């Protein structure tokens, strides 16, 4: 593995993280981003009865390990550094960690100044108030830029390594640009801070972060999705041979599986879809109602999950979910079918190792 490239995180198998803290500003937002980036499951439980002022209350983390043991921490900086070490988002030496701590202290100074000069005001979105703040923090923003330039302006603070500081600074810049788009002043521009905007662009389109950031208001908690991926999308068809020819000739789809009876219009085919592990499936079967123009036919919709039985028992109980059939045990894993409020069938499956 090339030096500077983050290694995969394999030590958190079966771990679960529970974060709690004040809603606004969210004291657990950076830890949430780190866990989201590392694709680690977590829960958010906003604390009740905490007063929000210019000195927000500490965050709290509960780390539940696979063996059931727990480890708890308070203080968002402590939690951030702990997660950074676990998720391989820290430095690779004492010197690099010290450098990250030094620059993080500068970023925290910018945020404290924003809370004092903007957020604590009657109207935190006031243009004049924000522009005055930008003018006051210009030296600090230029100092952040200098640290990026020292690292060859490659969009990172440490070599080409993604660290928690990269993610944190991106989120601050993104928040300022999204919240005050017409008030960037003379400093928050690509022409003034090119290295900063290089980092911003790198992470703005990063798939792991964009899932979290693009969900809306950054001052909100976002639940971690329990769905791991899309397995297939399917359609009921009247003539499997005609449909096979149509999708092959018109879209260039590659047929991965084909089950058709001789001299029959019935059968089942699967197409591999480009740039995804999902497949398109077509099914023609006996007793299938004729398609009515303008009315959708019902096709299979399958989702991959970690554990079908656990999801049905723990996550879906009391949420209006009707189990259509299953769970069924198969050599490759477990399958169950549930109904949505309109009685559409959704198949959820978990797949055993070796059958992916």
Automatic annotation (TrEMBL):
<dbReference type="InterPro" id="IPR004360">
    <property type="entry name" value="Glyas_Fos-R_dOase_dom"/>
</dbReference>
<dbReference type="InterPro" id="IPR037523">
    <property type="entry name" value="VOC_core"/>
</dbReference>
<dbReference type="Pfam" id="PF14497">
    <property type="entry name" value="GST_C_3"/>
</dbReference>
<dbReference type="InterPro" id="IPR004046">
    <property type="entry name" value="GST_C"/>
</dbReference>
<dbReference type="InterPro" id="IPR036282">
    <property type="entry name" value="Glutathione-S-Trfase_C_sf"/>
</dbReference>
<dbReference type="GO" id="GO:0006749">
    <property type="term" value="P:glutathione metabolic process"/>
</dbReference>
<dbReference type="GO" id="GO:0004364">
    <property type="term" value="F:glutathione transferase activity"/>
</dbReference>
<dbReference type="InterPro" id="IPR050213">
    <property type="entry name" value="GST_superfamily"/>
</dbReference>
<feature type="domain" description="VOC">
    <location>
        <begin position="229"/>
        <end position="351"/>
    </location>
</feature>
<protein>
    <recommendedName>
        <fullName>VOC domain-containing protein</fullName>
    </recommendedName>
</protein>
<dbReference type="Pfam" id="PF00903">
    <property type="entry name" value="Glyoxalase"/>
</dbReference>
<dbReference type="InterPro" id="IPR029068">
    <property type="entry name" value="Glyas_Bleomycin-R_OHBP_Dase"/>
</dbReference>
